[in-house]
Design brief:
The structure holds two protein chains of two kinds. By secondary structure, chain A is α+β, with helices and mostly antiparallel strands. Chain A contains 14 helices and 13 strands. In chain A, the strands form three sheets. In chain A, strands 3-2-4-9-1-10-13-12-11 form a nine-stranded mixed beta sheet, with helices on both faces. In chain A, strands 5-6 form a two-stranded antiparallel sheet. Chain B is mainly β. In chain B, strand 6 and strand 7 form a beta hairpin. The chains are: A alpha+beta, B mainly beta. Strand 7 of chain A pairs antiparallel with strand 3 of chain B.
Chain lengths: ~400, ~150
């Protein structure tokens, strides 16, 4: 544990209403989660002197963000000494690491971290996800004639000419993973199947009805071999944390989750290696793992990167689902993950990790209550990994 | 390493025609060569003149040696499929699924990947390691590079 990890704690956690097509003002969701986190921490708005968020007021696709740091300041009438918000950070949880760093550096004492999405409503209003992607074309110079050649935006310049939607990248990653590892779809299915079983115990999860391997194998293909259950679910909702100075007398340490180690290096393996380099703890000490599952294959890569199994052994590790089930040797995505609980984009996994470490998992609580949890965010070159400790 | 002299004239045998119109890429200072080389039958990949490293997508500085002497350079247009996926969704209004999106590893350099489509093939026959070669789809002001299974291999 190094200076950053020793100096900051997660003193409060908050969640807004989460659901499909809520059609609520995203700022209302942001405020709901933030006030919930403050209440949980036993703090008042006047105690907050920092805000950190991912990815800021605007980002890649419609609904991917509900607002920025300054929006939350204005919403809640905060007086800030420090704030940050943006998409260029190591994984979505990079914004939480940044908050801890600001606290460790003495720039702030209580930082509200938040993530807000409203993709479900925005996509529904636009007529489906593909319609949202199609809006990325640059129509500024044309008169909308359908016979004209449409020109893609610079953001989509490498993908739109090839009809490559974002799930195509999940398909490419999964296809190459199966090629390299010999993994079968029956094995891959367990990431989604176990997540769904866990979601049954999470009242905030959007999909809670049982899912079997047969359902997975019969599911609609999105980008072969990627099926609909390999893809996380766009939702509306917000998550918030209060990251506080550990030495602050204002927080009840018996409720605070500690940072044991953070890994912010770019890449699954690099982020995990950096995290382990900052602690004496190891994979065998982890009692519960919240692995980023924007696509199911990413959860497998995190399992491998974190050292729970070897490279290309992730699918064999999850085979049958027993090891990663709630009663297994390494419970994974105990709240349902993004596949079943919804794309709260890394923040949902950290929220679940904190719940589990505090023994507040309700019907889905892992027993005995874990002492150590890992929560990862992002994939490929956009990654971070957090090792967290139970209150003590 | 395959070296091939730069082609100079039009190369109609490398044109690929299809019954739909793709979305065109915007042409910028960085990308114009990649998207328009096909007009002369050339696949132009940015290459460092100092250390001979290819870099894609094109950038004005070599990530290996930091040299600014990066120049669009004609390559063979041959490669192998590194990874592929068959999109069942219509992500672009004019492009009917199913179609194969692939990362093609160009023959000139290990790990030199380009995102493209494999066309002119039954999706069920596409596999990792499949030898492919470039074709160009005239699209607006661009000639979009795509790949077909290679008749002769690499």
């Amino acid at each position: 544990m190094t200076a950053l990890e020793r100096s900051a704690v997660i003193s409060g956690i908050g969640l807004s209403q989460v659901g499909r097509r809520l059609n609520r003002d995203p700022w209302a969701l942001m405020a709901e989660a933030a006030l919930d986190a403050l209440d949980d921490a036993g703090l008042d708005r006047a105690d907050v002197d920092g805000v950190s968020t991912y990815p800021g007021p605007s980002w890649s696709t419609p609904g991917i963000t509900g607002g920025g740091a300054d929006d939350l300041r204005a919403l809640l009438g905060l007086s800030l000494r420090w704030y940050a918000g943006g998409g260029e950070t190591p994984g979505q949880l990079g914004s939480v690491v940044t908050a801890a760093a600001a606290v460790a550096a003495g720039l702030a004492t209580h930082v509200l971290c938040f993530r807000c999405v409203h993709e479900s409503s925005v996509q529904a209003q636009a007529g489906g996800r593909a319609s949202v992607m199609d809006q990325s074309r640059d129509t500024s110079g044309g008169d909308g004639d359908r016979d004209e050649v449409q020109v893609a935006t610079e953001q989509r310049q490498w993908t739109a000419p090839y009809g490559a939607g974002y799930p195509c990248f999940g398909g490419l990653a999964l296809q190459r993973y199966m090629h390299d590892s010999g993994a079968t779809r029956e094995q891959i299915a367990q990431i989604a199947v176990v997540a769904r079983a866990n979601a049954a115990g999470n009242p905030h999860a959007v999909y809670r009805t049982p899912l079997g391997v047969d359902d997975y194998l019969a599911a609609r293909i999105v980008s072969d071999p990627l099926c609909i259950y390999d893809c996380d679910v766009p939702v509306d909702g917000a998550v918030a944390f209060v990251v506080s100075r550990a030495a602050s007398g204002a927080v009840d340490r018996s409720r605070c989750v500690s940072f044991e180690a953070v890994g912010t290096a770019s890449g699954f393996d690099e982020a995990a290696a950096m995290m382990w380099s900052r602690t004496d703890l190891g994979p065998a000490d982890v009692g519960v793992a919240q692995l980023y599952d924007g696509f199911s294959v990413y959860a497998l890569r995190w399992l491998e990167a974190l050292g729970f199994c070897g490279r290309n052994e992730g699918a064999a590790f999850v085979e049958g689902g027993h090891r990663i089930a709630r009663g297994g040797e390494l419970p994974v995505n105990t709240g349902g993950g993004q596949l079943s609980a919804g794309r709260l984009h890394g923040y949902g996994g950290l929220y679940e990790a904190c719940l589990q470490l505090r023994g507040r998992g309700g019907d889905r609580q892992v027993h005995p209550v874990p002492e150590v949890a890992v929560a990862t965010s992002g994939a490929e070159h956009f990654t971070s990994s957090l090792l967290l400790g139970a209150p003590r | 390493v395959i070296t091939e002299p730069s082609r100079t004239g039009p190369s109609p045998e490398r044109v690929w025609t299809e019954p739909f119109v793709r979305m065109a890429p915007p042409l910028t200072e960085r990308t114009r060569a990649y998207w328009t080389g096909g007009a002369r039958g050339e696949l132009l990949i940015a290459r460092c003149e100092s250390c001979a490293t290819y870099v894609h997508p094109p950038r004005p500085v070599c990530p290996r040696c930091a040299s600014p002497a990066v120049t669009p350079t004609a390559v063979s247009g041959r490669g192998t499929v590194h990874a592929y996926t068959v999109s069942a969704y219509q992500w672009v209004a004019t492009m009917p699924p199913p179609y194969v999106v692939a990362e093609v590893e160009l023959a000139e350099q290990p790990g030199l990947l380009v995102l493209s489509n494999v066309v002119g093939a039954d999706p069920a026959e596409v596999r990792v390691g499949l030898p492919v070669e470039v074709r160009f789809v005239p699209t607006g002001d661009a000639h979009v590079p795509v790949f077909v299974p290679s008749a002769t291999g690499t």
